[in-house]
């Protein structure tokens, strides 16, 4: 079980969190033209990275904040955790 | 009754306390402190079971966790547990055990015929033999395998024992209480660290209990006892015996199974049977020791062949002689220690040493004691079927290829020592890159991935002095890093006998003309010849060889077999062992009971049960409950002997004719506040929200970004910047998370707060033509007329002094209202509604009637909004705004979503107006079509229409919009029925929706 440092609450066990996928994906702006390809990339296409991955987790059973976690997908090492409004 | 094999004084058992027990129906006795294995051996019982594949007789091979095959079916306190290791099960008064995997009895086993047929059961026999003919599988092969491969039998009774889970944090978790565990725990504890020391056996001390060493002028055993006594007194130390650390997971989480009651005849009142510990440790010290390696020779699985370390442990800990004419077969000095113990207790052992002329203090001691030693000698084969009665031995050439003349030697046990294998399972599980140590022919931990340190024999260090020094240092250094303290304890002086190098030889060649089975894996009956076949057939990867031959699989996890198997593969492939590599070690290191894993999460405790504040009323009024997500909801209120069908029909009918009331507390509720609240709703829902006036509710549909419907519900504008959103019961948590996601990550500029208020409000839906009259009587001070409170209107009122929110919304399709009060007043509200409603013939209705009402109205719900449908499919295309963007809108123009023949919700009525249609059935055009019959759609929800008094279903049907009026068939292969049906509009009742507005 991973040990994740919530930037708001501190070190907590993984079972307090839920996973939210790639944190580097930006939602396209509303009311803006976008190609099918770009939209599909946003909705569906994800790299299945081996190695460092910036991802989203929500501290569901804690402060309910969405946070960013930089984690190695192979070793599970966590390098850094950030608040939603912070960038790496 | 005397115990022929028990010594009078030696051992750590309590001779004052006799315990009687039964094995295979026969009575025996042992002493407090015995294991079942030591007690049986004391009584001269060596035959314990039959092997997995060939049903060969099985005895004892180890004395603890290393035991590969001495397992039994255990009976304790009217319960039974399969596959219990006799070497780990402590004896208790009244214990009963029987052999497993033999039929009809351990002495006469029919399956042993497999032993004679072994030529037909070679490596991979599961894959090869039972492949064809296919028709044989069910009738012949499967029953045969089931009978032959059966281990113990699981109890089918409900387990009444209690199992607990415990979460713990510490600075240092130390696995194993041998010399390295004790030394590191002591050094760390004295330096102020929070320490947990875990020992899987009942007694602390590990090898110190059996080895002849001296630490700080005390025997090893005394030193261990003193250290443990001191540790137990320290407030920063937790010392646990009968506790096996079996798994090492991410981020230094280790899991330990503590056996609290297994050694007692009965679990004490208020005690759990076992406790599972989840321990997050800053540092983990692995001091799990090593396991002696077998030597491989003919019939080396015969009862009476066992590890020399086990023989020594039975003698020194339990005062039990495993034989009176022991033959010690060794390639290193460890066998001598066992021989010396035998000799000291009046038994004459014979040592066969594969080495030519080894020299060390311990060999000298054996010589001085007059023990007979044969150098350059090997055991070629064990003799005897159910018990060793002799051995075929021979001199071996210096190059170890040639055997001399075969000699017969009388013996009653063969104690083997093929040197030591460090127990690296935990280190390997932690991600440690293990490396091969040529000096000891075994893998040892290499570079750690986590905060893990392996010490002592587990780290390939086999001298006590070195082990203790390393361990004191590690305990001190690691604790210093954490506590910043600097209290160092001094090393004790260690006296031990020096040992010389071991022989790399481990597998005795077959003599000419003999084809003895030489076993590598005793649990799975894998012999040298099986590995040879696997390699001959082209298997190369050790992982494949393992699976093909079953080497090192099952509960044993290759504790004794792993390295010999690797060695054999590398010898045959002309490779060195590290090139072959070892198979992955996976948790658990030893078997863990399902009970311990499940813990308290059994039955009603497996998840929380949420009850509405009105629940007690439902209970008193004969509600039959149903699980709705985590909620308990009334399904119907039973009157007399009513069935679900009859009761729900009555309740639904009463809503259509009079008025009904339904507990809708479980609906998800989200409070939304802030100047940008309308903007948020406008982006989340598919329809327009910016112009919703205060005091009005609106129905909304929200999508996922991929265009699939996520949820629906009504949201009401309570005041200028305050909205009340409702979600379906099932999606409440997901919708909240969804809103938080967009507010925190995507549109943080929106000034909005959301919070769940599901549990803060109790809700009652009042539905039916008489609901307005009822509402007016409940709230005399409001204007309940169609003008005063129109459809989708909202008011606040006083319900006999209690503040209430009144929404004119409808799920049933009737004129309806929802009244919300603070949860504490929920019961009060309900009782008032029932009381005042009496004159309008009110009846409560449950979820079944609720479903009926919405289905015949054609209101889509969870069974249509199932995570696979878009708004169009649900007839919700009118809900999509063309003038604004929203979540998921861009996905709706996908080709498949706008196809001409896109699926759409329709109504389905059986032609005979009688046959109920099972949910999940398929819709087809032609019953006689060639299989697979093309499926046009599926039945999503079914009910008995109370309005039309015939069955009615909703279906998601391909090209649904053009199918109205067509005749199709419903097929349910599960129920094996076919029903001719007509497709109709999904709005089976009040298609224009006039009632809700009336
Ligand atoms: Zn948090």
Task: List its traits.
heterodimer; A: 88 residues; mainly beta; Folate-binding fold; four-stranded antiparallel beta sheet; two-stranded antiparallel ribbon; 6 strands; 9% helix; B: 998 residues; alpha+beta; Ubiquitin-like (UB roll); FAD/NAD(P)-binding domain; 6 domains; seven-stranded mixed beta sheet; six-stranded mixed beta sheet; 23 helices; 50 strands; 22% helix; binds zinc ion
Overview of the structural elements:
The complex is a heterodimer of chains A (88) and B (998). Chain A is mostly beta strands. Chain A starts with a strand and ends in a 5-residue tail after the last strand. Chain A has one helix at 36-43; strands spanning 3-6, 10-13, 18-22, 52-58, 66-72, 78-83. Chain A is built from one helix and six strands, in the order βββαβββ. Chain A is globular. Chain A has a single domain, classed as Folate-binding fold. The longest helix of chain A is centred in the middle third of the chain and has 8 residues, at 36-43. Helices cover 9% and strands 38% of the residues of chain A. A four-stranded antiparallel β-sheet of chain A has the order 3-4-5-6, with no helix packed on it. In chain A, strands 1-2 form a two-stranded antiparallel ribbon. The mean pLDDT of chain A is 96. Chain B has 998 residues and is an alpha+beta fold. Chain B has six domains: 1-158, 2Fe-2S iron-sulphur cluster binding domain, sarcosine oxidase, alpha subunit, N-terminal domain (Ubiquitin-like (UB roll)); 163-290 and 422-495, FAD/NAD(P)-binding domain (3-Layer(bba) Sandwich), CATH 3.50.50; 294-418, FAD/NAD(P)-binding domain (3-Layer(bba) Sandwich), CATH 3.50.50.60; 624-666 and 759-845, Probable tRNA modification gtpase trme, domain 1 (Gyrase A, domain 2), CATH 3.30.1360; 669-757, 2-Layer Sandwich (Alpha-Beta Plaits), CATH 3.30.70.1400; 857-881 and 897-984, Aminomethyltransferase beta-barrel domains (Elongation Factor Tu (Ef-tu), domain 3). Chain B is 22% helix and 28% strand. Chain B is built from 23 helices and 50 strands. In chain B, strands 8, 9, 12, 13, 14, 15 and 28 form a seven-stranded mixed β-sheet that branches. In chain B, strands 41-42-43-40-34-44 form a six-stranded mixed β-sheet, with helices on both faces. Chain B has a six-stranded antiparallel β-barrel with strand order 45-48-47-46-49-50. In chain B, strand 5 (71-76) and strand 6 form a beta hairpin. The radius of gyration of chain B is 38 Å and the shape is elongated. Chain B starts with 13 loop residues before the first strand and ends in a 14-residue tail after the last strand. The model of chain B has no long low-confidence stretch (mean pLDDT 93). The chains are: A mainly beta (88), B alpha+beta (998). The A-B interface holds A 1-3, 13, 18, 20, 27-28, 30-31, 34, 39, 42-44, 56, 58, 60, 64-66, 75-76, 78, 84-85 and B 249-253, 278, 280, 431, 449, 683, 705-706, 737, 740-741, 744-746, 748, 884-886, 890-891. Zinc ion (ZN) binds next to loops of chain A.
């Amino acid at each position: 079980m991973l040990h994740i440092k919530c930037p708001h609450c501190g070190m907590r066990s993984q079972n307090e969190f839920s996973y939210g996928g790639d944190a580097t994906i930006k939602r396209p702006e509303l009311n803006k033209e976008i190609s099918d390809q770009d939209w599909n990339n946003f909705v569906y296409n994800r790299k299945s990275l081996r190695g460092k991955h910036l991802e989203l987790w929500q501290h569901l059973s804690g402060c309910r904040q969405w946070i960013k976690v930089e984690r190695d997908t192979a070793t599970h090492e966590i390098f850094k955790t950030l608040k939603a409004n912070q960038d790496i | 009754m005397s115990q022929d094999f028990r010594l009078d004084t030696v051992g750590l058992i309590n001779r004052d306390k006799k315990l009687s027990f039964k094995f295979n129906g026969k009575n025996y006795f042992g002493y407090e402190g015995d294991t079942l294995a030591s007690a049986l051996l004391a009584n001269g019982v060596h035959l314990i079971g039959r092997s997995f594949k060939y049903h060969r007789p099985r005895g004892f091979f180890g004395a603890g966790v290393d035991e590969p095959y001495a397992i039994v079916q255990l009976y304790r306190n009217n319960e039974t547990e399969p596959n219990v290791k006799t070497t780990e099960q402590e004896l208790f008064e009244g214990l009963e055990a029987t052999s497993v995997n033999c039929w009809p009895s351990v002495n006469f086993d029919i399956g042993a015929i497999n032993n004679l047929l072994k030529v037909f059961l070679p490596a991979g026999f599961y894959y090869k033999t039972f492949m064809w003919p296919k028709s044989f599988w069910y009738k012949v092969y499967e029953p045969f395998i089931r009978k032959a491969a059966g281990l113990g039998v699981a109890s089918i009774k409900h387990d009444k024992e209690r199992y607990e889970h415990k979460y713990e944090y510490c600075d240092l978790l130390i696995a194993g209480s041998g010399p390295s565990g004790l030394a590191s725990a002591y050094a760390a504890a004295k330096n102020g660290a929070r320490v947990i020391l875990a020992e899987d056996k009942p007694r602390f001390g590990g090898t110190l209990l059996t080895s002849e060493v001296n630490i700080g002028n005390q025997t090893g055993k005394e030193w261990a006892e003193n250290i443990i006594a001191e540790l137990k007194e320290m407030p920063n130390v937790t010392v646990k015996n009968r506790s096996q650390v079996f798994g090492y997971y991410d981020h230094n989480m280790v899991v330990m199974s503590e056996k609290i009651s297994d050694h007692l005849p009965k679990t004490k009142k208020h005690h759990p049977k076992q406790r599972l510990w989840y321990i997050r440790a800053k540092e983990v010290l692995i001091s799990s020791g090593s396991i002696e390696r077998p030597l491989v020779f003919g019939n080396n699985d015969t009862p009476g062949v066992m590890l020399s370390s086990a023989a020594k442990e039975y003698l020194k800990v339990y005062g039990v002689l495993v034989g009176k004419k022991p033959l010690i077969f060794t390639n290193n000095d460890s066998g001598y220690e066992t021989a010396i113990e035998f000799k000291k207790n009046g038994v004459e052992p014979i040592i066969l040493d594969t080495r030519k002329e080894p020299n060390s203090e311990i060999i000298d001691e054996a010589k001085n004691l007059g023990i007979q030693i044969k150098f350059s000698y090997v055991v070629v084969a064990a003799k005897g079927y159910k018990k060793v009665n002799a051995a075929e031995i021979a001199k071996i050439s210096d190059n170890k290829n040639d055997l001399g003349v075969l000699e017969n030697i009388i013996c009653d046990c063969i104690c083997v020592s093929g040197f030591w294998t460090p127990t690296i399972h935990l280190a390997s599980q932690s991600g440690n890159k293990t490396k091969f140590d040529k000096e000891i022919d075994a893998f040892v931990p290499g570079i750690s991935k986590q905060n893990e340190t392996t010490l002592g024999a587990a780290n390939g260090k086999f001298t006590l002095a070195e082990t203790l020094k390393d361990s004191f240092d590690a305990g001190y250094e690691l604790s210093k890093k954490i506590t910043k303290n600097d209290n160092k304890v001094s090393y004790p002086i260690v006296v031990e006998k020096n040992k010389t190098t071991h022989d790399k030889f481990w597998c005795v060649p077959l003599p000419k003309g003999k084809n003895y089975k030489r076993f590598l894996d005793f649990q799975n009956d894998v012999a040298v010849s099986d590995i040879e076949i696997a390699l001959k057939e082209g298997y190369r990867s050790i992982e494949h060889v393992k699976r093909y031959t079953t080497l090192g699989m099952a509960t044993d996890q290759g504790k004794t077999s792993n390295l010999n198997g690797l060695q054999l593969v590398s010898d045959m492939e002309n490779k060195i062992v590290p090139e072959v590599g070892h198979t992955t070690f996976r948790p658990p290191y030893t078997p863990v009971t399902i009970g311990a894993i499940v813990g308290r999460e059994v039955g009603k405790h497996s998840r929380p049960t949420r009850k509405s504040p009105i629940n007690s009323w439902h209970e008193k009024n004969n509600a039959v409950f149903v699980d709705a997500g985590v909620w308990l909801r009334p399904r119907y209120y039973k009157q007399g002997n009513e069935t679900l069908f009859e009761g729900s029909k009555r309740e639904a009918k009463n809503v259509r004719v009079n008025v009904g009331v339904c507990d809708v507390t479980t609906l998800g509720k989200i409070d939304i506040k802030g100047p940008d609240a309308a903007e948020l709703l406008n982006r989340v829902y598919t329809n327009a929200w910016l112009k919703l006036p205060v005091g009005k509710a609106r129905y909304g549909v929200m999508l996922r970004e991929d265009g699939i419907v996520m949820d629906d519900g009504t949201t009401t504008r309570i005041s200028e910047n305050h909205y009340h959103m409702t979600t379906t019961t099932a999606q409440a948590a997901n919708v909240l998370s969804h809103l938080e996601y967009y507010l925190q990550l995507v549109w943080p500029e929106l000034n909005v707060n959301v919070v769940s208020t599901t549990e803060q409000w109790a809700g009652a839906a009042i539905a039916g033509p008489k609901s307005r009259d009822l509402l007016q009587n409940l709230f005399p001070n409001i204007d309940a007329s169609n003008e005063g409170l129109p459809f989708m209107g909202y008011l606040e009122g006083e319900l006999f002094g209690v503040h209430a929110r009144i929404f004119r919304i409808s799920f049933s399709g009737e004129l309806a209202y929802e009244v919300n009060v603070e949860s504490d007043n929920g019961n009060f509200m309900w009782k008032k509604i029932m009381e005042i409603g009496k004159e309008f013939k009110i009846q409560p209705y449950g979820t079944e009637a609720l479903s009926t009402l919405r289905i015949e109205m054609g209101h889509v719900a969870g069974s249509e909004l199932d995570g696979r449908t878009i708004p169009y499919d649900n007839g919700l295309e009118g809900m999509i705004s063309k003038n604004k963007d929203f979540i998921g809108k861009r996905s709706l123009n996908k080709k498949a979503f706008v196809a001409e023949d896109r699926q759409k919700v329709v109504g389905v009525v059986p032609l005979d107006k009688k046959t109920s249609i099972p949910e999940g059935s398929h819709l087809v055009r032609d019953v006689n079509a060639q299989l697979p019959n093309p499926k046009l759609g599926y039945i999503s929800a079914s009910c008995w229409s109370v309005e039309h008094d015939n069955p009615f279903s909703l279906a998601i049907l391909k090209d649904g919009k053009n199918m109205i009026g067509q005749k199709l068939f419903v097929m349910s292969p599960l129920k094996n029925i076919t029903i001719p049906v007509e497709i109709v509009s999904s709005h089976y009742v009040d298609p224009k929706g006039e009632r809700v507005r009336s």
